[in-house]
Every structure is written in structure tokens, then in C-alpha cells.
């Protein structure tokens, strides 16, 4: 089998989606599943839909087009403001988009009207994390403007927290979102169908809040895919953390000193190697590098230590493993590692629905929370 490769357990993704759909459903919150970390994989998307997600979302029009071409039947939301150069593709491949800019909205209006389509708009409002979103004072005027644009319908409002500065969703900012939904409805004279509270970082709040207010949708990616809370990177209770592993092949194995010799400068990526204890180790080199994965998000098998990474080589201390050239190691992945590995053209993807045979325990990576 080709290596490096990401192995995907679709049953785990379906189970995680169903668990979150059921638990959030008791609070009146729907789940829109986000596919951006898996490059818009139709297989993963269908697992999410089988688990009960009401729709799919992605930040890249190209990924939504992939889902569209694959015939994945579902509402599709573009969760990054469309680029002006892609507004026509956004209208073609997304039923809804998140927006903040009047010039983009005007361009969407022209494209939708030209196509004879109606494109739904969710206006994003800034509530503290300082990424996308209009200031609350500007929200009602923008909503009124959308109401006057041909080809557009005002579906709702939303916000995004935790991604830029780690601002946690809480009763205060979520209550403010509910208040803004009421203000917009009074101004435009019609009900909003979407009040989108945010992403996987909202789960702690949503599952523990006494009252979730007007929030009726969350956009969930990391929690479904990895079973983790982005605010803590700890497992979400009841979710599986083993849906993904990254498998790489050993291309060199041998005993080498732990400490380099000679005068030291910067490494290939501008870093200085950390100090190491002396002696020797059984060193392995895998055909995997920074062009394929974010090494900071890799979790090696128990007893294996990552020593360094260049563009194309991952160097590890194999410890007591009886590994040989041509053998494989499987690593757990965090969000950044998964995102880059799924994007690399050099990393294959293998998706399975049935529970697949596990690699030997000594050669498998652990959940990122086992460090």
C-alpha cells in the first residue's frame, strides 16, 4: 500500500457526528459539518451526513465544487467570505455563504441574479476574537442593505471565536449574539433561520449552558474529525479520537550518535536544534517531511521520539522497536498535521467504513491527548 498515507475510519466520523447531533439537538442546535481539513472529501462528507449533519461547509470554493461534482446531496455553505474573483463559483457551488463586506455582497447579488438563483447570506459579526465580522453597530445597516439586493436572501447572522486569539465562547458573547439576532429581525421585519454560534470551540459552552438563547447552529469540524475540543485539545466526552492516522515508511535505520558534531548554524527551516543527551540511539528516517505534514501535530507511537524534520525526512529515535527499512510507523495527528497531510499531493488517503485491522500496537500512534 502507498505511503505516506492518511488512513481514515469513516465509521468513527459517522459516530462522532451522530453523538454531537444527538446531544446538541436537545438544546435546539443543528450541526453543519465542516470538511475543510479533509480537502472536501466526499467519503468523509457522506459519513457526516449519515451521522445527521444538516449540511456541509468549507472555507474553499474548490472543496465545495468537489462535493458538488461527486453528487453529495446536501446544503453547502462557504464559511469564508467569497473572494471577488470567485463570487460566481460561490453562487454555483454554495447555497449559502458567510459575509462581511458590502462590495462582495453586491457582486454576489449580480452573479445570483444573472444565474436566476437565490443565494443565502449569513452576516458575520465581530464579538471579540478579531478575525472576520462587522462591528455590532454596523450589523443592522448591512442587513438592511442585503434585503434590497436582488438574488440574495438574508438567512441569518453568525460569529466566529477562538480561531485568531483563542477567545472562548461563553454566556456573555453568545447572549450578545442572541440580542443582535433580535435587533436584526426587528429592523428587517422578518425572522432569521440561522443564528450560527461558531465552531467546535463552542461545544463546552453549548453542552453546559443552561440556556443557549437564539443560537441554533454550530459549524463543527475538529470535534467531529478528531474528537477534540479546540480550546483545550482534550477529548470531548463520548467522542472517538482515532478516526485518522498518518502512516509513513522507513527508508533508513541504524545506530547513530544523539549529538551532532561540528559547528552549529540554523537548520533548513531556520531553527537551532535543541540540546540533547549524549550517547547513541537507534535512529530511523521516514519518507515524510514538512512538505507533507506539520510535524508539531504528529504524535509518535509509544516509545518513539521525533528528533527532527526537514522538507522530506522525518528523523526519529526508534527506542526498542525492531523496525527495518521498508517497515511503517503510524502516527496520531492533530488538527494542523491533518490539514497539511490531506492537502499534500504526496500523501495518499485510504478511507474505510468497516473497522479495519489495526497495526501492531507498538507501531501505532496515539491520540494527540496521550502525550
From TrEMBL:
<dbReference type="Pfam" id="PF01168">
    <property type="entry name" value="Ala_racemase_N"/>
</dbReference>
<keyword id="KW-0413">Isomerase</keyword>
<dbReference type="InterPro" id="IPR029066">
    <property type="entry name" value="PLP-binding_barrel"/>
</dbReference>
<dbReference type="InterPro" id="IPR001608">
    <property type="entry name" value="Ala_racemase_N"/>
</dbReference>
<dbReference type="GO" id="GO:0005829">
    <property type="term" value="C:cytosol"/>
</dbReference>
<dbReference type="InterPro" id="IPR000821">
    <property type="entry name" value="Ala_racemase"/>
</dbReference>
<dbReference type="GO" id="GO:0008784">
    <property type="term" value="F:alanine racemase activity"/>
</dbReference>
<dbReference type="GO" id="GO:0030170">
    <property type="term" value="F:pyridoxal phosphate binding"/>
</dbReference>
<keyword id="KW-0663">Pyridoxal phosphate</keyword>
<protein>
    <submittedName>
        <fullName>Alanine/ornithine racemase family PLP-dependent enzyme</fullName>
    </submittedName>
</protein>
<feature type="domain" description="Alanine racemase N-terminal">
    <location>
        <begin position="8"/>
        <end position="225"/>
    </location>
</feature>
